[in-house]
């Protein structure tokens, strides 16, 4: 076979090969330590070796490091080699950007009733799927209702999503590391009712408590403030205010029985004398 023909065959063969096979170097998500927990942090690393692999290291379900296996630091490689501990996990994959999934234990049912009726009627027939990597803590599963009242199941990867679910009566969180694909619970209505009942009770008792507190507040201020600042108050306040006045009046010398030398006695005598003189003048000088 001529050399030109051989060259043509090799060229065609190389052109038919997938690009990933010809350029075997991988591109992986990369992070270390606290950067793995930042939702705004996203960095890609291009592996140096053609046959390198992508890796994610987890501890208790929380991602600790990501990147190319060949550039992973020794401290993380030790975790990958020590697979006896149930708390740590090292996931290795060979596709581009394949290390974007959570630990293998973080699997949840991911479905919507609007797309698959089994999501409500028979969720055990559905296959759980590994969640995306959580960038704030670790993954949780949820089951709830969407805006159209359709039942949905899936993963929660952000703290804001966790808070939103916990604040709603029609949403329930669970931990897939404790119970595998735990969001397979069948009846969201019962969960909603049981969740709402304590809330209603709590709000009622809180309301009544608030009501009693607000009622007691003005009562105490009414009985205290007017007594010291104004005389127009409730009868009980008026009585307590007039009590010292009565005592003061009783003890006052002006209420004692007038003595013979008092000014009242002298005035009476002067009046009698004036009347007597008036009678005498009238008798002596009749008109």
Automatic annotation (TrEMBL):
Signal peptide stretch: 1-24
**Region annotation Disordered: where it falls in the sequence:** 191-264
Q: Does the entry feature the keyword Signal, yes or no?
A: yes
Q: Which InterPro entries does this entry report, sorted A to Z?
A: DUF753 (IPR008472)
Q: Which UniProt keywords apply?
A: Signal
Residue span(s) of domain DUF753: 27-99, 107-183
Name the Pfam families for this protein.
Answer: DUF753
Name the domain of life this protein comes from.
Eukaryota
Q: Where is the composition biased (Low complexity)?
A: 191-255
In terms of PANTHER family, this protein maps to: DUF753 DOMAIN-CONTAINING PROTEIN-RELATED, GH09876P-RELATED
Q: What is this protein called?
A: Spore coat protein SP96
Q: Which gene encodes it?
A: LOC115624892
